[in-house]
Amino acid sequence: MDDIEDAQDLPSKNALDTASWRREVHALYLAIRAEPDPATAHALWVGTRSRLFLEHPASPRREGQSLRHAPYDPAFRFVVPVEPAEQEPWWFRSATDGVVPFRGAGRVALDGLGTLDLWWLDSYGGGLFLPVRDGSAGQETYGAGRYLLDTVKGTDLGRDGEDRWVVDLNFAYNPSCVYDYRWVCPLAPAANRFEARAAVGELLPEGYDA
Protein backbone atom coordinates (compact mmCIF):
# COMPACT_ATOMS: atom_id res chain seq x y z
CA MET A 1 0.00 0.00 0.00
CA ASP A 2 1.42 3.36 -1.00
CA ASP A 3 0.48 6.82 0.22
CA ILE A 4 0.20 8.33 -3.25
CA GLU A 5 -1.76 5.44 -4.66
CA ASP A 6 -5.50 5.62 -4.79
CA ALA A 7 -7.99 2.88 -3.88
CA GLN A 8 -11.24 2.73 -5.83
CA ASP A 9 -14.15 0.57 -4.60
CA LEU A 10 -11.95 -1.21 -2.06
CA PRO A 11 -13.16 -2.07 1.44
CA SER A 12 -12.01 0.66 3.80
CA LYS A 13 -8.74 -0.17 5.51
CA ASN A 14 -8.79 0.29 9.24
CA ALA A 15 -6.93 3.51 10.03
CA LEU A 16 -4.91 1.87 12.79
CA ASP A 17 -3.92 -0.98 10.46
CA THR A 18 -2.72 1.51 7.87
CA ALA A 19 -0.76 3.44 10.51
CA SER A 20 0.81 0.15 11.63
CA TRP A 21 1.80 -0.71 8.04
CA ARG A 22 3.48 2.65 7.55
CA ARG A 23 5.27 2.37 10.87
CA GLU A 24 6.67 -1.04 9.93
CA VAL A 25 7.82 0.19 6.53
CA HIS A 26 9.61 3.17 8.10
CA ALA A 27 11.29 0.87 10.63
CA LEU A 28 12.36 -1.53 7.88
CA TYR A 29 14.08 1.17 5.84
CA LEU A 30 15.71 2.60 8.94
CA ALA A 31 17.27 -0.83 9.52
CA ILE A 32 18.29 -1.07 5.85
CA ARG A 33 20.10 2.26 6.00
CA ALA A 34 21.92 1.18 9.16
CA GLU A 35 23.16 -2.10 7.62
CA PRO A 36 26.59 -1.67 5.97
CA ASP A 37 26.32 -4.76 3.75
CA PRO A 38 23.83 -4.24 0.90
CA ALA A 39 23.20 -7.97 0.39
CA THR A 40 22.35 -8.42 4.09
CA ALA A 41 20.07 -5.37 3.92
CA HIS A 42 18.39 -6.87 0.87
CA ALA A 43 17.75 -10.17 2.67
CA LEU A 44 16.13 -8.22 5.52
CA TRP A 45 14.02 -6.30 3.01
CA VAL A 46 12.86 -9.44 1.21
CA GLY A 47 11.97 -11.26 4.43
CA THR A 48 10.14 -8.35 6.02
CA ARG A 49 8.20 -7.32 2.92
CA SER A 50 7.17 -10.92 2.28
CA ARG A 51 5.93 -11.26 5.87
CA LEU A 52 4.03 -7.99 5.77
CA PHE A 53 2.47 -8.87 2.43
CA LEU A 54 1.23 -12.24 3.68
CA GLU A 55 0.21 -11.33 7.22
CA HIS A 56 -0.49 -7.63 7.69
CA PRO A 57 -4.17 -6.58 7.66
CA ALA A 58 -3.35 -3.51 5.53
CA SER A 59 -1.64 -5.56 2.80
CA PRO A 60 -2.92 -5.10 -0.78
CA ARG A 61 -2.62 -8.88 -1.25
CA ARG A 62 -5.40 -10.88 -2.84
CA GLU A 63 -5.99 -14.57 -2.19
CA GLY A 64 -3.31 -16.82 -3.65
CA GLN A 65 -0.69 -14.11 -4.09
CA SER A 66 2.82 -14.08 -2.65
CA LEU A 67 5.88 -12.00 -3.41
CA ARG A 68 8.80 -13.12 -5.58
CA HIS A 69 12.24 -11.50 -5.51
CA ALA A 70 15.35 -11.91 -7.63
CA PRO A 71 18.68 -12.70 -5.93
CA TYR A 72 20.77 -9.69 -4.95
CA ASP A 73 23.05 -8.45 -7.77
CA PRO A 74 25.59 -5.76 -6.76
CA ALA A 75 25.86 -4.62 -10.39
CA PHE A 76 22.52 -2.85 -9.97
CA ARG A 77 23.52 -0.77 -6.94
CA PHE A 78 24.47 2.85 -7.63
CA VAL A 79 25.51 5.73 -5.40
CA VAL A 80 25.01 8.81 -7.51
CA PRO A 81 24.56 12.57 -7.28
CA VAL A 82 21.29 14.20 -8.27
CA GLU A 83 22.08 16.39 -11.26
CA PRO A 84 20.06 19.50 -12.18
CA ALA A 85 17.68 18.92 -15.10
CA GLU A 86 14.99 20.72 -17.05
CA GLN A 87 11.76 18.89 -16.23
CA GLU A 88 8.18 19.62 -17.10
CA PRO A 89 5.70 19.18 -14.23
CA TRP A 90 3.86 15.87 -14.06
CA TRP A 91 0.30 15.41 -12.81
CA PHE A 92 -1.21 12.17 -11.57
CA ARG A 93 -5.01 12.05 -11.69
CA SER A 94 -6.54 10.43 -8.59
CA ALA A 95 -10.20 9.47 -8.23
CA THR A 96 -10.32 10.64 -4.60
CA ASP A 97 -7.67 13.38 -4.38
CA GLY A 98 -8.05 14.99 -7.79
CA VAL A 99 -4.86 15.91 -9.60
CA VAL A 100 -1.71 15.11 -7.61
CA PRO A 101 1.19 17.32 -8.79
CA PHE A 102 4.83 16.32 -9.14
CA ARG A 103 7.64 18.68 -10.05
CA GLY A 104 11.15 17.89 -11.14
CA ALA A 105 13.85 17.53 -8.48
CA GLY A 106 16.75 16.56 -10.75
CA ARG A 107 18.07 13.52 -12.55
CA VAL A 108 20.26 10.51 -11.73
CA ALA A 109 22.48 8.70 -14.21
CA LEU A 110 22.87 4.93 -13.77
CA ASP A 111 25.96 3.74 -15.60
CA GLY A 112 25.14 1.23 -18.34
CA LEU A 113 21.38 1.60 -17.89
CA GLY A 114 20.26 5.16 -18.51
CA THR A 115 18.93 8.17 -16.65
CA LEU A 116 15.93 8.60 -14.37
CA ASP A 117 14.12 11.76 -13.36
CA LEU A 118 13.65 12.36 -9.64
CA TRP A 119 10.31 13.90 -8.70
CA TRP A 120 8.99 15.91 -5.77
CA LEU A 121 5.43 15.21 -4.61
CA ASP A 122 4.26 18.81 -4.63
CA SER A 123 1.33 18.52 -2.25
CA TYR A 124 0.67 17.90 1.43
CA GLY A 125 3.52 15.93 3.01
CA GLY A 126 5.88 16.31 0.07
CA GLY A 127 8.54 13.72 -0.65
CA LEU A 128 10.94 12.47 -3.31
CA PHE A 129 9.62 9.88 -5.74
CA LEU A 130 11.69 7.74 -8.13
CA PRO A 131 9.75 5.29 -10.32
CA VAL A 132 11.40 3.12 -12.99
CA ARG A 133 10.41 0.97 -15.95
CA ASP A 134 13.20 -1.17 -17.39
CA GLY A 135 13.55 -3.68 -20.23
CA SER A 136 12.22 -6.55 -18.11
CA ALA A 137 8.80 -4.87 -17.81
CA GLY A 138 5.94 -6.98 -19.08
CA GLN A 139 7.95 -10.18 -18.73
CA GLU A 140 9.71 -10.70 -15.40
CA THR A 141 8.50 -7.43 -13.85
CA TYR A 142 5.33 -5.34 -13.91
CA GLY A 143 4.67 -3.86 -17.33
CA ALA A 144 4.07 -0.30 -16.15
CA GLY A 145 7.07 -0.07 -13.82
CA ARG A 146 8.07 -0.19 -10.18
CA TYR A 147 9.16 2.19 -7.42
CA LEU A 148 12.70 2.75 -6.13
CA LEU A 149 12.31 5.65 -3.70
CA ASP A 150 9.26 7.25 -2.13
CA THR A 151 10.40 9.23 0.87
CA VAL A 152 6.92 10.36 1.93
CA LYS A 153 6.39 6.81 3.24
CA GLY A 154 9.97 6.10 4.28
CA THR A 155 11.25 4.06 1.31
CA ASP A 156 14.59 5.83 1.33
CA LEU A 157 17.83 3.85 0.88
CA GLY A 158 20.05 6.62 2.23
CA ARG A 159 22.89 8.83 1.06
CA ASP A 160 26.69 8.78 0.95
CA GLY A 161 27.49 12.22 2.29
CA GLU A 162 25.17 15.09 1.42
CA ASP A 163 24.93 14.84 -2.35
CA ARG A 164 25.16 11.16 -3.41
CA TRP A 165 22.01 9.03 -3.13
CA VAL A 166 21.77 5.25 -3.00
CA VAL A 167 19.75 4.05 -6.00
CA ASP A 168 19.66 0.25 -5.82
CA LEU A 169 17.40 -1.54 -8.28
CA ASN A 170 17.55 -4.65 -6.12
CA PHE A 171 15.09 -2.78 -3.88
CA ALA A 172 12.64 -1.91 -6.70
CA TYR A 173 9.14 -2.82 -5.51
CA ASN A 174 5.71 -3.16 -7.05
CA PRO A 175 2.92 -0.61 -6.69
CA SER A 176 -0.30 -1.88 -5.16
CA CYS A 177 -2.09 -1.98 -8.52
CA VAL A 178 0.01 -5.05 -9.38
CA TYR A 179 -1.91 -7.03 -6.77
CA ASP A 180 -5.39 -5.57 -7.16
CA TYR A 181 -6.63 -3.74 -10.26
CA ARG A 182 -8.85 -1.55 -8.09
CA TRP A 183 -5.77 0.39 -7.00
CA VAL A 184 -4.74 3.27 -9.26
CA CYS A 185 -1.03 4.05 -9.05
CA PRO A 186 1.28 6.75 -10.44
CA LEU A 187 3.54 4.87 -12.84
CA ALA A 188 6.82 5.60 -14.55
CA PRO A 189 6.55 8.52 -16.99
CA ALA A 190 8.58 8.55 -20.22
CA ALA A 191 11.64 10.10 -18.54
CA ASN A 192 11.81 7.19 -16.10
CA ARG A 193 12.00 4.40 -18.67
CA PHE A 194 15.04 2.75 -20.17
CA GLU A 195 15.53 -0.23 -22.49
CA ALA A 196 18.23 -2.05 -20.49
CA ARG A 197 16.96 -5.10 -18.61
CA ALA A 198 17.06 -4.96 -14.80
CA ALA A 199 15.17 -8.05 -13.62
CA VAL A 200 16.17 -7.58 -9.98
CA GLY A 201 14.14 -6.57 -6.95
CA GLU A 202 10.49 -7.47 -6.71
CA LEU A 203 9.28 -9.54 -9.67
CA LEU A 204 5.74 -10.30 -10.77
CA PRO A 205 4.16 -12.09 -7.81
CA GLU A 206 2.95 -15.64 -7.56
CA GLY A 207 -0.74 -15.62 -8.36
CA TYR A 208 -0.43 -12.56 -10.63
CA ASP A 209 -3.51 -12.06 -12.79
CA ALA A 210 -3.05 -9.52 -15.59
Question: Can you tag this structure with a few keywords?
Answer:
2 helices, 25% strand, 5-stranded antiparallel sheet, 18% helix, 210 residues, 3-stranded antiparallel sheet, single chain, alpha+beta, 10 strands
Describe the structure.
- By secondary structure, the protein is α+β, with helices and mostly antiparallel strands.
- It has one domain.
- Helix content is 18%, strand content 25%.
- It contains two helices and ten strands.
- A five-stranded antiparallel sheet has the order 3-4-5-6-7, with no helix packed on it. Strands 2-9-8 form a three-stranded antiparallel sheet, with no helix packed on it.
Secondary structure class reads: alpha+beta
Strand count: 10
Residues in β-strands, percent:
15-25%
The poorly predicted ranges are none
* Helix run count: 2
- Helix-strand sequence: EHHEEEEEEEEE
> In percent, how helical is the residue content?
10-25%
Question: Numbering strands along the chain, what is their spatial order in the largest sheet?
Answer: 3-4-5-6-7
CA-based shape: globular
* CA(first)-CA(last) distance: 19 Å
Global Rg: 16 Å
**What is the average of the pLDDT values?**
90
Largest sheet: 5 strands, antiparallel
Count of individual domains: 1
Task: Map the helices and strands.
Layout: E1 6-7, H1 15-34, H2 38-55, E2 77-81, E3 90-94, E4 98-110, E5 114-121, E6 128-132, E7 146-150, E8 159-160, E9 164-168, E10 183-184
Helix pairs in contact: 1-2
